[in-house]
């Protein structure tokens, strides 16, 4: 792809301007959206986010993964272990079955993946742009939703909690590292999250390329239509 | 020149001082300075394993009369675990809970103790492979297999027609077989006869136990021999693979005052068994099927339960009917250990009452067999000519040789019980290279892989029989003592002295990497196939069948479910089937009830164990978690109410707000 950029786009082209953009360049935005669609669908293969709890008596750390459709850990028992830890301070049990987002988020991702393919077919710069904006909005909404859940788990504590610490919250960080009692909690995107971000990046790249191509085509058309003088003028 | 004369001068000045020091230390026998032995200055750093770091080797030491196996780390000498095998262990509930009781079943019923002598690691191609550890039960003849993924006893097989399983369980180089030779002659078949009819009615049986690819043991065949005492064994390796060697004493076949009577013959025998030949004879059907009752106990990691099966017959080979099966190698004098060097060529007969150490040559033995160089025959078994099989003699190395192990550099190390030392000698040249004192009266020694084809060397452990003043006194009974030596250099270097559990009779060592990565952290709950498992708190319940009450209970930090139980009556038999729902490493829960004539349960994550309780008096009795599991461990408790025999209290159980009634 990089080679395409170099040979087809960035190279200074000698005059006279070719009467059209190269074929490979024309196909590039669509191709990028194909890749974007694939990158987005990897959300079904990789977790979006990872929260790691680190304490001396957990030498391997407790790794919790948030997927598009489930919450899991390194092993089948991890969620239970997190819940056991959480119950001391009265946090709610994390029960994936009770989180509706895990049901409809996958559908949204499938739809967006399909739409990405559709944008490739339509091959219009505004379409690419719209997809990118829509996906960005969805991603921000998703992260905000994640934050709300974190906030709820961290603040909405059972009044019957065995351990009560006045004023304390147990909300893990959205992004970064935070001390929570005896644990260091780390929260960072995981492969799925990064690849989804990459899909957004690709959509905007597609939009950018498509608009450049449009401009070139417009210029070309202008040149064809323009009188000889003005064509000479462009030479100078 | 000047330098040299200066050196001489200094040396002359030092010499008297050196002499004084030597004199002082000699005259100070039993004092602190002699007890330190040949301790080198940097020994501490060699055995120091920094906090949080791991030892380089696992050492598996038999507990002897404790019937267990203790697991140590080397070089630190830190105790890592005690694995219950042949004896009940209240700490782990082994032999007390319903699941492990069958493991200690024998044809004599439930036998809660044994004398465990020789741990033996499984091998592949002559190298220890870290899959299993076998160990013999001496008293009520048995062989156990410990699974080294769980460090728990996985299987025990009883040895029929045996009077004391001492020459056991020494493996072949691919763990085709582990063996079991009887130390005591017994009537064959076992029956009521006069003891002094020993020579006539008694026999000695050698047993070959086939080990399956998953470790399962099965008695393949037995070899019927004269009623000698079969003391120790080792299998051939490399060129001698296919043979197993057993030492004998009491070839005099006496039955009283053996310390005198069994020490009369100048030479006893090493019995060489060609087990590949035995396989052929079995194939050809040249065996006798003999009725013999013996049990086979298997523990299943999915059902978390042991099962005990009674078996009824064994195949017996009679050497006089099976030529080429057994040969006797005359060996001075009451040989104890028989140790095959890593090449498989040399067979060391540690003649414990002999002044010299006799080493037989395997290739000479084959030649002698081929040339029929026989002295005589005993019970139809050819006795090879001594001079035709001896490969070499280590001259006057020490007093009372017992056992020999090998390093990877062609050296042998032999323990001398009476002179309380280990002597290093060269295989092939038979010259003594070094010697080191042991504290005191060393029996076995262990070099990791030192009895295999591929010794891992580096360290040597002396397993001593007498402790005396080595540690702070603890009354009349003392721990046994082990010493760790560095054998990587030319000279043996004492590094460490550490007390051991029971009688560490023999030991096996293996580099940690061959075991460590296979070690299980917990049992996946979804694989739990226990018939009384409870998968999830919502399935907890109490059921009555007549006067039997089954409590389907779960544990998770930090409560039992249910934790209040009513409706149990005096005269009931209550089974608490406790499933530990935890799925994290190192979170066992314990269970104990006031007044139970039992041990605790110690339930590993994902496991189910059963505690039987027969309440005798009315009242309300607490039960609680015995293993400190969490910050709320002290709160992990409950009550069971016991009513009178004729009471009408309904069966009821609950946890928190949830309460159920049957």
Description:
The complex is a heterodimer of chains A (236) and B (662). Chain A is an alpha+beta fold and 236 residues long. Chain A has 7 helices and 5 strands; from the N terminus they run H-H-E-E-E-H-H-H-E-E-H-H. A 5-stranded antiparallel sheet of chain A has the order 3-2-1-5-4. In chain A, helix 4 (101-122) packs antiparallel against helix 5 and helix 5 (125-155) runs antiparallel to helix 6. Helices cover 10% and strands 44% of the residues of chain B. In chain B, the strands form 10 sheets. In chain B, strands 6, 7, 8, 9, 10, 11, 12, 13, 14, 18 and 19 form an 11-stranded mixed sheet that branches. In chain B, strands 42-41-44-45-39-46-47 form a 7-stranded mixed sheet, with no helix packed on it. In chain B, strands 36, 37, 38, 40 and 43 form a 5-stranded mixed sheet that branches. In chain B, a hairpin with a 2-residue loop joins strand 6 (116-124) and strand 7. The longest helix of chain B has 26 residues, at 2-27. Mean pLDDT of chain B is 93; it is low at 1-8 and 10-34. The A-B interface holds A 75-78, 80-81, 84, 88, 162-163 and B 522, 524-526, 556-557, 581-584, 605, 630-632, 635.
Keywords:
A: 236 residues; alpha+beta; 5-stranded antiparallel β-sheet; B: 662 residues; mainly beta; disordered N terminus
| Shape verdict of chain A | elongated
Largest sheet of chain B: 11 strands, mixed
Helix content of chain B: under 10%
Broad structural category of chain A? alpha+beta
